[in-house]
Design a protein that fits this description.
By secondary structure, this protein is an alpha/beta fold. The chain has 14 helices and 6 strands. Helix content is about 55%, strand content about 10%.
């Protein structure tokens, strides 16, 4: 007689997600003080070396209290894909679990979280010729017009993208031209690779959008006062950077680059940077609302870190 199959028990992992300015770092530090956690950064900007101010990277004192993985791992001239993140994150999660500790993944790059949770889709490689055609379309009519074309052929993907998000608009159109299928349909049909962890997923959501907007305004101005312009000047002087590189398309750096190029004056820079950050937060919240099995907390609630800690402790017991 065959013995009954034993139920597979996966090790736990904590996903702490939220838009920029929602207080993820403070909550993560509280969790790290009370739980046997190791923090893995889920941030597509903090991966770059020497990009500290504009990415709100944890300072040396914070990192000494709670070391973070996947921070400052590549130069600003390099590229880093969602596939690379998934491979690195899974490797680190396995190492942390082997140390009888819990991986705590913290950040706002929702594409990275989705890739980790759902696996990778079989999407075609980039095609320089097709990208050149799309760039030519944008030069002639503007990216909002190209976005309108994407809305016609792939309304699901277009709804998640801002009309000025040239990089993602280009990629979605490129996939359609290469495959004849909307990217959203390919993603839906893709085989989901199960995550070998029992994920406790937390989302920090602003109860008052206006409060978040004010915090974003204050935060960007603090970055300017802390030396964001000087940091960007140093990066341009020490690396062979171009404004089309992913590092320089990060919110904040892109606007400072445009200011340094004379596209607008200094008095316009705070408004430009704030508006771009608000758009980023809006996209992040759109991603979060589409995710399943996520427990949401008002990021402005009193005693937020303690509330999140109590919830996670209960979930880990269960």
């Amino acid at each position: 007689m065959l013995a009954p199959m034993r139920e597979i028990t996966y090790p736990p992992a904590i996903f702490l997600m939220g838009p920029t300015g929602s207080g993820k770092t403070a909550v993560a530090l509280e969790l790290a003080q009370h739980l046997p956690c190791e923090i893995i950064s889920v941030d597509s900007a903090q991966i770059y070396r020497h990009m500290d101010i504009g990415t709100a990277k944890p300072d040396a004192a914070t990192l000494s209290r709670a070391p973070h993985h996947l921070i400052s791992i590549i130069d600003p001239t390099e590229r880093y894909s969602a596939a690379q993140f998934r491979a690195d994150a899974l490797r680190l999660m396995a190492e942390i679990s082997e140390r009888n500790r819990v991986p705590l993944l913290v950040g706002g790059t929702m594409l990275y979280f989705q890739t980790l949770r759902e696996g990778l889709s079989e999407l075609p490689q980039a095609d320089p010729a097709i990208r050149a055609v799309i760039d030519s379309m944008a030069q002639g009519a503007g990216w909002p017009a190209v976005h309108a074309e994407l809305s016609r052929i792939d309304p699901v993907t277009a709804a998640r993208l801002e009309p000025t998000d040239s990089q993602r608009i280009q990629r979605a159109l490129e996939i359609f031209y290469l495959t004849g299928q909307p990217m959203s349909q390919i993603l839906l049909q893709s085989e989901i690779a199960a995550l070998p962890y029992r994920a406790v997923s937390i989302a920090l959501i602003p109860g008052e959008r206006a409060v978040l907007h004010q915090l974003i305004f204050e935060r960007f101005n603090r970055m300017l006062m802390a030396g964001l312009i000087e940091e960007t000047k140093w990066l341009r002087a020490n690396y062979a950077l171009q404004d089309s590189m992913p590092s320089m398309r990060c919110v904040g750096y892109r606007q400072v680059w445009q200011y340094l190029e004379g596209d607008f004056g200094y008095h316009e820079l705070p408004a430009k940077g704030t508006a771009a950050t608000r758009q980023l937060a809006k996209r992040q919240m759109t991603w979060l609302r589409s995710m399943q099995d996520v427990e949401s907390f008002d990021c402005f609630a009193a005693n937020l870190p303690q509330r999140v800690l109590a919830h996670i402790e209960q979930m880990l017991k269960n």
